[in-house]
Amino acid sequence: MTEPKIALVTGASRGIGLSISQMLVGIGYTVYGLSRNPQNCKFTHELFHLMACDLSNSKEIDQFIISFPEIKNISLLIHNAGLAYFAPVEELSSEKIREMVSLHITAPMLLTSAFTRSLKQNNGRIVFIGSVSGKEISPWGNVYASLKAGIHHYARELFAELRKFGVKVHLIIPDITKTDFYNHLNFEPDEDPKSYLLPDQIASVIKDLVLNDQGWVVPEIQISPELFKLKRKKQN
């Protein structure tokens, strides 16, 4: 009997996380997804189990870890959840800073720590969805970009540590991707389809990594659209 393929995807109800979840279901994974607002997701499938968890709240993370039914069988952990507030540093409230730190740094570290023993036993894999902002100077992205740079380094540290135990770690660094990430920002991707990525394209890269297991590992991939174009939103 074939062992079940169990994946956990954070931020799974929309955007890149939803596309990754749909892709994994398509190749036979049972996907457990975490989302702050799972009721907003319209996608349903017998292999897709979306659960409510506010990943900016460490107590909710602890409770999820305790209650997660497949902790011993998990073989794929995908850290995707994220949000950004862009503003001059003195205009970022303490609440927004704490929320971003908790979501981008604390949550993936807590989940990774909780699941690594099982991932070692199952020759598993961890995928981090980073951001090109973590590699560049980002106007008004002082906190967000710094946190992404931090989680990039955490992924690289884990790659070096866990490869000794058969756990593969990948850092995926997307450039501008057309999602509702930009809904509350004052800029967005240009209309030119060559100037942005689509969530399904990110999912396709992960599919190749998961399926093409040939004894070597690609630890880091940056994906960029052909053109660089952004536009400022019109002020009402």
UniProtKB/TrEMBL annotation:
SUPFAM superfamilies: NAD(P)-binding Rossmann-fold domains. Pfam families: adh_short (PF00106). It comes from the Bacteria. InterPro entries: NAD(P)-bd_dom_sf, SDR, SDR_fam. Belongs to the short-chain dehydrogenases/reductases (SDR) family. This is SDR family oxidoreductase. It comes from Leptospira kanakyensis.
